[in-house]
Amino acid sequence: MKLSKPQWLRVKLGVLLLSATAIAQTTGVPPGFTPIFNGKDTKGWHVSRSNHHGHDPNFYVKDGVLFAAERPYGQGGILLTDKKYHNFELSLEVNPDSECDGGIFLRSTETGSGYQVDMTPRGGNPPVLALMGEDMPFTRGEDKAPRHSSTGVWKMHNWNTLRIRMVGDAPRVTVWLNDTMLYDIQQPRNDLIGDETDGMIALQLHWTAFPKAAGFIGQMWSPDSVHRFRNIAIKELP
Questions:
Q1: What is the pLDDT of residues 112-132, one digit of tens each?
Q2: What is the DSSP letter of 75?
Q3: Which of 38, 52, 90, 104 is in the most buried spot, having the most CB atoms within 10 Å?
Q4: DSSP structure string for the chain
């Protein structure tokens, strides 16, 4: 049966949509999300030269994975999206080495001021994934809303899926780990400097306060360790 041009266009569009959905499902990017990391390089991202963690971090891409490592050891840094976001859902897969302090910044400024979901496995324990901000050093889910612990949900030394939703000028932040909601927090006010309500997504390597060799408890990053990220995608919301 010969299709008319409108019918042919509808079929072609349907095939394209099915193909895009299939690709999204096989690559770990949820349907409806737009990748912001291309799996090849850091195009669309840039290193901050004005934050306090360090100005020369080693962010590099290999086999579709974005690695974050200190360079030189003791110095950290942040990698930011070129684009700013207001209301959004962020989806990404993470696999950080233990004893490495890092996080995912939300609505970040160029200098790294913003909200943060902390991502630091320590002592063989999973990261708490606490929500942090400028005036609320540790706003944990259990303080503000019912919380599901990351223990038993986090997969040690393996890939974990994080989904983070942020909506509102005084934001409501919801965090899921491997499809389990950890917390859903409504902030009473905007916590950002200068009342900014838009900002960049950023990946943080914390500077190393005390090298591991020195034997201090305050060590922030183990030598030769990395954080790993892949399938970073975002869905902008009204």
A1: 999 999 998 887 889 999 998
A2: -
A3: 104
A4: -PPPHHHHHHHHHHHHHHHHHHHHHHHTPPTT-EES--SSS-TTEEE-SSSSS-S--EEEEETTEEEEE-SSTT--EEEEESS-BSSEEEEEEE-PPTTB-EEEEEEE-TTS-SEEEE---BTTBPP---EE-SS-TTB-HHHHS----STTTS-TTS-EEEEEEEETTTTEEEEEETTEEEEEEE-SS--SGGG---BEEEEEE---SS-GGGT-TT--B-TT--EEEEEEEEEE--
